[in-house]
Write a structure and sequence with these properties.
alpha+beta, five-stranded antiparallel beta sheet, 6 helices, Chorismate synthase, AroC fold, homotetramer, 24% helix
Amino acid sequence: MSGNSFGVLFRVASFGESHGPALGAVLDGCPPGIELEPAIIQKELDRRRPAQSEVATSRAETDQVEILSGVFEGRTTGTPIALLIKNLDADPSAYENLRNVFRPGHADYTYLQKYGIRDHRGGGRASGRETAARVAAGAVAKQVLRGFGVSVRAATVQVGEIQAREFDENAMDDNPLRCPDRGAAEKMLELVLKAREEGDSLGGIVEVRAKGVPAGLGEPVFGKLDAELASALMGIGAVKGVEIGDGFLVAERRGTENLDPFINEGGRIHTRYNRAGGILGGISTGEDIILRVAVKPTSSIPREQESVDQAGRDTKIRIKGRHDPCICPRLVPVAEAMVALVLCDQILRHRGQCGTGLKKGFDK
Amino acid sequence: MSGNSFGVLFRVASFGESHGPALGAVLDGCPPGIELEPAIIQKELDRRRPAQSEVATSRAETDQVEILSGVFEGRTTGTPIALLIKNLDADPSAYENLRNVFRPGHADYTYLQKYGIRDHRGGGRASGRETAARVAAGAVAKQVLRGFGVSVRAATVQVGEIQAREFDENAMDDNPLRCPDRGAAEKMLELVLKAREEGDSLGGIVEVRAKGVPAGLGEPVFGKLDAELASALMGIGAVKGVEIGDGFLVAERRGTENLDPFINEGGRIHTRYNRAGGILGGISTGEDIILRVAVKPTSSIPREQESVDQAGRDTKIRIKGRHDPCICPRLVPVAEAMVALVLCDQILRHRGQCGTGLKKGFDK
Amino acid sequence: MSGNSFGVLFRVASFGESHGPALGAVLDGCPPGIELEPAIIQKELDRRRPAQSEVATSRAETDQVEILSGVFEGRTTGTPIALLIKNLDADPSAYENLRNVFRPGHADYTYLQKYGIRDHRGGGRASGRETAARVAAGAVAKQVLRGFGVSVRAATVQVGEIQAREFDENAMDDNPLRCPDRGAAEKMLELVLKAREEGDSLGGIVEVRAKGVPAGLGEPVFGKLDAELASALMGIGAVKGVEIGDGFLVAERRGTENLDPFINEGGRIHTRYNRAGGILGGISTGEDIILRVAVKPTSSIPREQESVDQAGRDTKIRIKGRHDPCICPRLVPVAEAMVALVLCDQILRHRGQCGTGLKKGFDK
Amino acid sequence: MSGNSFGVLFRVASFGESHGPALGAVLDGCPPGIELEPAIIQKELDRRRPAQSEVATSRAETDQVEILSGVFEGRTTGTPIALLIKNLDADPSAYENLRNVFRPGHADYTYLQKYGIRDHRGGGRASGRETAARVAAGAVAKQVLRGFGVSVRAATVQVGEIQAREFDENAMDDNPLRCPDRGAAEKMLELVLKAREEGDSLGGIVEVRAKGVPAGLGEPVFGKLDAELASALMGIGAVKGVEIGDGFLVAERRGTENLDPFINEGGRIHTRYNRAGGILGGISTGEDIILRVAVKPTSSIPREQESVDQAGRDTKIRIKGRHDPCICPRLVPVAEAMVALVLCDQILRHRGQCGTGLKKGFDK
């Protein structure tokens, strides 16, 4: 991972600005012979797309994906897959008043410090809109993972102080929060609508679970699976923390409270409680991988905010644009995509180094 | 980062097992002309070394580092720096009874699943001892960073439920917990000694702060500074969570509570509260970078534990070996090293792409 | 370099098939603030474009480039630059008869062996058309190099047995062969036209020269400048050999004949004869870098050829399509592009590791 | 490949100077379960070792390799393999007179320009002695390749104007030139001894052949197998040219003369003449891979040479040290090592991306 490039064997180069002509990604190193058509990617993009519900921004992008290469007669050929998503509802004029000021909580100041130049239109490259390319790339990764029996699902498990009490995969797509607990979902929605009404926004927690991951994925020291997953998730805008398994709870535990014996269930070895969240020593155990990320409340709220301009003068700004009062539900497909990219790259790396000797899932 | 290799420009390849002949690292891409001698590295290794206090394992390793290449007449030459640390107190016999069983909470099972073979002696490559190589490499990174005015310090800010209330750099090295709050340190020590007496262990939280980091470090999307730092820290054994700035607290905040305006103080732009922990949009703001990691209680406690053996049979094990009742103080220099490696690589990558136009610290 | 991805700091991900919807590249890591507009890239693409002269294929592609990202108000922003070239004159039907046969001298057989699937239309990804993306990416690299005072020019110095006797940069663009010797150019043209008439093709040699390269570019052992240039040039289709400086001639020389003393000319150190072609020990000397590549005669000639089909049956094929009787003139801009990509990446890598202490050319 | 680091999946980090304490390499990503012991590596090192014959330098290094990690009970574990070769006969004093002068044909000047500092002792990192680490790493790669049925052999096929007329693998190790033609070997030896007597040196050509390489290795565009092999070979000191198959001969050929039909021999597809040297479109055909490199005459000849010193003053130097009159025979094992490294990395990359569907050799 460096810059806008991801992966060792399953490599993704992403591009695009919020209000430029298009966004997209080039995927280099995808296994050949995988079924792929635009609809498979579109389905994931549609989950991320703006303007879908009362709790999301109203920017009207259809986010139609085009496959420009690497697919022949419905199957991947092993050559690079270029994915293109045109920006149709770009409206840079809404940002003209922000050309010379730094929005608090955004990357305006840091991009200018780094590059000495910045595309101020909607945050340019630092816009959440960039995640459309990640979701498109992640959809291909998911399709590869499917062949290995691996699936990835995320959900909003907390908004403000309201927490989900269960992780019901059937409930997730029922509600605009993508909450896996229908009861909690209702309270969350109420809270979010109230925040929006008040010109405010809310933070929350998104949980990601990967099922069917065979034991043995991940590499020692710098290529640990949990390390790469942490990077993948922390690299999503608005994420301020990542934890795996029991996460920050372990800080207050004793060793005797944190024990998690190996057990043999019907000839397959498990950890009794999966406290580790599916990874030990950086390598998958075969249990579900469970991660949680802390999501900050959207910084772009329709209030007057203090800031400074590029000349260093104090100023007040009011962000118009179109923004989500709680970013969690739209972060859900992005988190899934990032986890899928890591798993897909690691599965290929594992197969490259270690071949097909594993007990489960690698003999494709 | 992949496998045992780290970095884009400042590249580290680490090697070594707990009970093999030696550990070490090769650093490729270090800037030339940097003052370097073994003592500079040794100082950091001595902070990580076992058998230093009543709260650490009694394995007697002096961890003497040798520089095998890349330094000429006291300065780096720009060619690879090989660092070697011999294992002197290796005692594999202590582990013979663990040859065919999987220690809970350790990587025994996952390494075997991955590789089909494992070095069972003290966890082999998955041992905490491997971090000596990271600390040695990190010491070189710190030396490079020094020339850019950047310093990195970590400390134990929580053990069990006892939290440090201040971050006093002078206090850190006074106490065996490396706690930055002398009052809290005493209580922590008491707690740890009691746990050890009871054959138990304790989790905690380590905080890392980097000072003097110029605004502008980090890259968009996949190479974000916080993403790379999260990976670096999550990749330390026993770490189960990473957060930056206000971290998981933001999940319960409203946008209006999380505001952090830019202000101009004496001609330099700051964020008023540094809630973001020194990074916005993946790029450093120039404020202190502040990270915290959740550390699990040591899994190797001197209690009988349930497990299974390689044949899948239920078994009971008792781990002898020599272990730390709370790993936090020894994790402190490792966390510093990992953060230093990331910052050093990013500073060189920034200089490569963007040259020397920044306001502060890059014109070396 | 791996797969379709190039570079450490100046990274290029290329995509596209000969008869798919589009070709292009994503450039990640380009320095910010560089002037860039489509016309700068188009100029280079127009040099590679087919249907330009009597010695080139008649496929009618205009190769119009679109910049989709990474450029704002005429300058690069430091974020990825996506370049798109649509295929307009794709004509897959011409290749339908080749769906199940392997063209000799082409990649049909090897792609099928590797991937188990292939896009047979015009060679798919293995088509020379893919080089349009390289030329577009190389045009950006050239623009970056311009700011460092570096220029790259290539020319056809041999066709069949006819050799150029001078390297006159003014002559190169005068003739369809891109030969730097007007006298030789005429004879070459005659030879090529005769070969085309006879349904035959010709090999040749292309020479590349880079001027203004500061001393100090390149890295030891695996990252040597000549090694990376050799890879870049050998990776162009039809190239079967690469040499630098006096190249294969040195095999028959004695040490005393190959001497090349350092001399001081007006305060600047030179090698007297530049026998090494501008690189010693893998690092540039500051002299012109001079490389030559051997180019095979086009395999696609309008003759009946023997081959086998996918079922392993003997078959005869006749390649219709549209092909160049001598590929050298069209390889010229591709060779320049590849050399420019290497130099650009190396210049940034050098600046990253070593900063700006060099005597010449790096203080940008 | 960058700096002193090689490979995508089979990664090598090399280190060491000619007159420092030691040389070596860390191999990260080696498949687990491969038989490995020092003797396997030593055998290759002994072929490269100095002071073996009348045509090689008399520096008395035994080049004993130690394996520091990554091997357990005689098999690789999948973790990094560190290889160490101590310098025992280092004699920096012989180079004291060269501290401030630039030896023509060497990297003294370019290293100083790059890094602003240099280890002048025997060329430091730029010494041919560095290749010991490559040969050690290559020995491991060869051991991995053996399991895939792949072998790599090189030989001196030309010295001065004397060419080998056959490639007899049995003859190669019979003669100090490592020439595969016994008759030519005698004449070469005579020539080399005469050159040494006259205080002169000779260039030559080394040919490398890889047998048993399955069809399908290599990647499109930037990761072509021939491109990576060219890089690997051009990166060996003294190499000034690389060609594959018919190489530079193709420049003077017509398409009709260069035809090479696919044929079916007993159910396996071949190219009739293997003109391409085993690679088409950057991907292996399954035929022998055949490469040749042009080797310059050793620059260090015992004659007075003109040069300049670091102050830019004209000077005369006489290189004492201990040098080979013709470097070809010692380059033979280095060339094999480099080709083995590339093939090993590519075979793992292929297995990672494409799995085990190939017809031959990958189902390990």
